[in-house]
Automatic annotation (TrEMBL):
One of its GO terms (biological process) is carboxylic acid metabolic process. It comes from Capsicum baccatum (Peruvian pepper). It holds the Pfam family Pyridoxal_deC. The lineage of its organism: Eukaryota, Viridiplantae, Streptophyta, Embryophyta, Tracheophyta. The keyword Glycoprotein does not apply. This is Serine decarboxylase. Its cofactor is pyridoxal 5'-phosphate.
Length: 465
């Protein structure tokens, strides 16, 4: 897709410090090309604190503004191949085309479906993005309401708020492996909160859910269903949860379901039909900067149009109705999302999903063959492994760790070459960590299951079995 054009020629110098991009370093202003140029010389050194301060013009004795920014960009570019521990897709090439938009302040305040009196917004792009997701999650355009959020947490806060407003005395249920923003919502809204146990793979324990639903039968249920848990990538089975509600005698007017699909909301629909408003769910949210990819945090939240009146308030100052959490919203993000969706299309997503699932299995198999404790859930791109012993190694690969576990999230920009480099580095380091036999790899049977643990005890136990 071509670059945006304006009647007045756009001058990058208006928003980019002069000298920030020296000739030859970023051909044609393409930062994607700069990334590619840096891949062969990536640094293994984690980024250090820059210890910056704001200086007065003409009174700065240190590096120039341009030099500081150029060094910062250089550092980030060198660290791209080591970004494997968190769910952010940094594989996109649209910022050069969309850079001209940075000269405008775009604010999508109020309802996305109502125009503002000011012209500097991108609600038309926002509605196009919402319509795309409404189609993906099977709800008619005149039956839904939604908006582009600042991220998955805001989506969870909004979805749970809709449920609370519909069922004011409802109890919020969520598994212990759900995102921390769910408990945050319960605290902010002063909701009664029931934490549901999770199985060893991170999926909700449905027997515990049933027991607690029966225990609280007199009150409505607001259930957070996690479509891909943060650390293990486990998927709560929506159909089992709905059946559990029916078995416990809850009618449709006695429960509300919010689906937190921050990462997997753009993966699972291209593998199996699970997330659908044809089922009695109330809302779905995803993070736009995760599998789709966007330079700034963002998300999409969709709920049923019939529910939103409980939140809507007319605001005369902006000549609109507002039912959002944040009010003012970044008008750039809907354009980035629209551009990515349009450039990639369903076929592009299907290819990305297949490649990521295949690469995740490749990593899991390689680690397993090397005798390393590892687990991979079905429909997940999150590979959970034993926590590396050395903090420096963890920082080099920017890994997320919980207890004795770490994980690698195989996003679209992560290639087999990157995974091979990680595996080679890990195997070399493990020889140093465990060479004298006085220290052994951790037992992670309680965290990922005995069948996935390769500690000395469970490895022998598995061989005997």
């Amino acid at each position: 897709m071509g670059s945006l054009s304006f009647e007045k020629d756009f001058e990058p110098s208006a928003i980019t410090p002069r000298g920030l991009a020296p000739p030859g370093l970023i051909p044609n202003g393409d930062f994607g090309e700069m990334k590619r140029l840096k891949l062969d010389t990536t640094s293994t050194t984690p980024r250090k604190n820059l210890n910056l301060s704001v200086t007065e013009p003409g009174k700065n004795d240190g590096p120039s503004l341009d030099c500081t920014l150029m060094n910062y960009i250089d550092t980030l570019s060198q660290r791209i191949n080591y970004h494997i521990g968190y769910p952010v897709n940094i594989c996109y090439e649209h910022y050069a085309s969309l850079a001209p938009l940075l000269q405008f302040h775009l604010n999508n305040c109020g309802d996305p479906f109502l125009q503002n009196t000011v012209d500097f917004h991108s609600k038309d792009f926002e509605v196009a993005v919402l319509n795309w997701f409404a189609d993906l999650w099977e709800i008619e355009k005149d039956q839904y309401w939604g908006y582009v959020t600042n991220g998955g947490t805001e989506g969870n806060l909004h979805g749970i708020l809709v449920g609370r407003e519909l069922l004011p005395n409802g109890i919020l249920y969520a598994s212990k492996d759900s995102h921390y923003s769910v408990a945050k919502a319960a605290m902010m809204y002063r909701m009664e909160f029931e934490m549901i146990n999770a199985s060893v793979n991170g999926e909700m324990d449905y027997s515990d859910l049933k027991a607690k639903l029966l225990q609280n039968k007199g009150k409505p249920a607001i259930i957070n269903v996690t479509i891909g848990t943060t650390f293990k990538g486990a998927v709560d089975d929506l159909d089992i949860i709905l059946q559990t509600l029916r078995d416990c005698g809850y009618t449709h007017d006695q429960f509300y379901i919010h689906c937190d699909a921050a990462l997997n909301g753009l993966i699972i629909p291209f593998v199996k039909k699970m997330i659908s408003f044809k089922k009695p769910i109330g809302s779905v949210t995803i993070s736009g900067h995760k599998f789709l990819g966007c330079p700034m945090p963002c998300g999409v939240q969709i709920t049923r149009k019939s529910y939103i009146n409980n939140l809507s308030r007319r605001v005369e100052y902006i000549a609109s109705v507002d039912a959002t959490i944040s009010g003012s919203r970044n008008g750039l993000t809907p354009i980035f999302l629209w551009y990515s969706l349009s450039a990639k299309g369903h076929i592009g997503f299907q290819k990305d999903v297949k490649r990521c699932l295949d690469n995740a299995k490749y990593l899991k198999d390689r680690l397993q063959q090397a005798g390393i404790s590892v687990m991979l859930n079905e429909l997940s791109i999150i590979v959970v492994l034993e926590r590396p012993r050395d903090h420096e190694f963890v920082r080099r690969w920017q890994l997320s760790c919980v207890r004795d576990m770490a994980h690698v999230i195989v996003m679209p920009g992560i290639t087999k070459e990157t995974l091979d480099s990680f595996i080679t580095d890990l195997l070399q380091q493990r020889k140093k960590w465990y060479q004298d036999g006085r220290v052994s790899p951790p037992c992670v049977a309680d965290d990922i299951g005995a069948q996935n643990c390769a500690c000395s005890y469970h490895k022998i136990d598995y061989i005997i079995a």
